[in-house]
Write a sequence for this structure.
């Protein structure tokens, strides 16, 4: 059996110029990064602005497990399957972070015969967007430290610096560091922290900005510190936003690539959903809606994280409304939620599947609360038995939702025909009947928004705020952040803030240990549980298996 990278490397890709031409993009609207990658310039946005939007399909999933769910694979395969049934579709995905690529989770280009290509480029440096975001963030940090070194005219309190340096790599040693050591010429000594690039506010800003002027304004609005009098200091106060925007000049433009079967894919931005808002850029999604009859996008991790933030943050800010939500699940993952160890997931276990199916029910019911029709996609494995699939059938009938088996991993677009036809049918049947709405109103206070998400989406009994969280909340309200949407950072493995609570936990409270105002991005981050914004590498990182041979061919990536 071929590995993902072997399948990708054996595929004859089409020149990206051809993909762009078929989409209706003009020659001067593409900036080429070699033969198979291109950035789509601002001219395309301006020319297509008056074109009607296509249908928006969001792909999400149950809580991730070691068994895997295949959300990105399903997204890529659904795009390929749309072409098989004669539909014009564009996929809109996030860019992978190097942290998971060299860590444990892997990349974000799909798998098997439902991948986005060129797989190696996408999972490594791609077009340099991640590096540009890292550089822009760290330039602001350097300018802040330099301001304090050069007399500190703004009176910035080194004990109250909020912006953190970032790196697109899992490196736990950088979580807490001390900078400025070595004497007077080396800067003001202070404690500092690194976060992973995909958790930075600059990443969120890039993904939510509608254009360059909006990007620059948002960068200037980043709250970077407080002064000795307790007054806020923003990036614009140290005149950092212009140079930061210059570093992001190319990164703000979405990237055009293709699937294994030549379906257009726009990849742009890559915030994690457990520690950030988990969606690709507004610009990429909006462009895909203009270029195709169907835009198929995804949100990170389970629907309790990425999809909730897609609805409550991205759709609210960008004026988007999904026409259908696809919830991806596997029999194996549901058995894991039912208590079956990973090593035993291939064996039939109907009772454990019934027990674990409550996780699927929770995610389907949660998505329906946004007023959008739901389709369940069962990413089928060869070990799934008829008796187990009957449990899924019964579960979906009980929920009153359509479901389809997906075999895109092994069969590509052909294996997703049933899913594509089901999605199109559900969209057509609900045309004009959907009433999309976020789960909380703009005017609700921050603590009420957090409690609404915890109760309505996670199933919690309530929320507990630590003293530190209450102190931060008071400061956020004083700065006018009370009416912003909320981005809750919590574990992806459970509906709760405890990763060990599988299935559909009950009788738990969510603990908010701190809050942060992301004033440039336009939301408040609430930290639940022990979530880390700088992940670490596992005992055996994936990097140990990756190599490049004498002919510059990469091996072991997946």
């Amino acid at each position: 059996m071929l590995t993902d990278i072997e399948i990708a490397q054996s595929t004859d890709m089409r020149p990206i110029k051809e993909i762009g031409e078929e989409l209706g993009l003009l020659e001067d609207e593409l900036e080429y990064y070699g033969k198979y990658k291109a950035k789509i310039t601002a001219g395309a946005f301006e020319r297509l602005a008056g074109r009607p939007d296509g249908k928006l399909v969001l792909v999400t999933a149950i809580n991730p497990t070691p068994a895997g769910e295949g959300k990105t694979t399903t997204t890529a395969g659904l795009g390929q399957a749309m072409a098989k049934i004669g539909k014009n579709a564009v996929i809109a995905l996030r860019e992978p972070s190097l942290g998971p690529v060299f860590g444990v989770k892997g990349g974000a280009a799909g798998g098997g015969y439902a991948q986005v290509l060129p797989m190696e480029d996408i999972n490594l440096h791609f077009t340099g967007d991640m590096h540009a975001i890292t550089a822009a963030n760290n330039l602001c940090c350097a300018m802040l430290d330099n301001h304090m070194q050069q007399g500190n005219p703004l009176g910035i309190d080194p004990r109250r610096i909020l912006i953190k340096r970032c790196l697109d790599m899992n490196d736990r040693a950088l979580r807490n560091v001390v900078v400025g050591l070595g004497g007077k010429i080396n800067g003001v000594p202070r404690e500092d922290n690194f976060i992973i690039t995909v958790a930075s506010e600059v990443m969120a800003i890039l993904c939510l900005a509608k254009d360059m002027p909006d990007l620059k304004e948002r960068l200037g609005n980043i709250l970077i510190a407080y002064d000795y009098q307790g007054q806020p200091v923003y990036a614009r106060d140290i005149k950092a936003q212009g140079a930061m925007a210059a570093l992001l000049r190319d990164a703000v433009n979405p990237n055009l690539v293709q699937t294994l079967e030549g379906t257009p894919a726009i990849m742009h931005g890559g915030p994690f959903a457990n520690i950030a808002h988990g969606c690709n850029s507004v610009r990429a999604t909006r462009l895909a809606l203009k270029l195709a009859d169907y835009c198929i996008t995804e949100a990170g991790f389970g629907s309790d994280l990425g999809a909730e933030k897609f609805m409550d943050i991205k759709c609210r800010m960008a004026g988007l409304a999904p026409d259908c939500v696809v919830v991806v699940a596997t029999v194996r993952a549901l058995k894991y939620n039912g208590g079956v160890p990973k090593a035993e997931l291939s064996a039939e276990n109907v009772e454990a599947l019934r027990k674990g199916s409550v996780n699927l029910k929770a995610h389907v019911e949660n998505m329906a609360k946004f007023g959008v029709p739901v389709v369940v996609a069962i990413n089928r494995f060869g070990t799934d038995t008829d008796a187990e699939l009957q449990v899924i059938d019964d579960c979906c009938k009980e929920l009153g939702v359509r479901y389809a088996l997906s075999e895109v991993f092994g069969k590509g677009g052909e294996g997703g025909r049933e899913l594509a036809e089901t999605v199109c049918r559900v969209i057509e049947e609900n045309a004009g009947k959907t009433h999309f709405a976020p789960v909380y109103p703009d005017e609700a206070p921050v603590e009420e928004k957090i409690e609404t998400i915890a109760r309505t989406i996670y199933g919690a009994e309530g929320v507990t705020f630590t003293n530190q969280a209450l102190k931060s909340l008071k400061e956020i309200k004083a700065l006018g952040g009370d009416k912003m949407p909320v981005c809750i950072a919590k574990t992806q493995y459970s509906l709760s803030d405890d990763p060990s609570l599988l299935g559909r936990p009950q009788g738990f409270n969510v603990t908010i240990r701190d809050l942060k105002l992301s004033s440039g991005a336009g939301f408040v981050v609430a930290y639940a549980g022990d979530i880390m914004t700088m992940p670490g590498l596992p005992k055996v990182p994936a990097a140990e298996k990756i190599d490049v041979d004498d002919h510059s061919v990469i091996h072991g990536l997946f």
Q: What stands out?
A: DSSP finds 19 helices and 25 strands in the chain. Residues 20 and 26 are 8 Å apart (CA to CA). The longest strand covers residues 509-518. The chain has a mean pLDDT of 95.
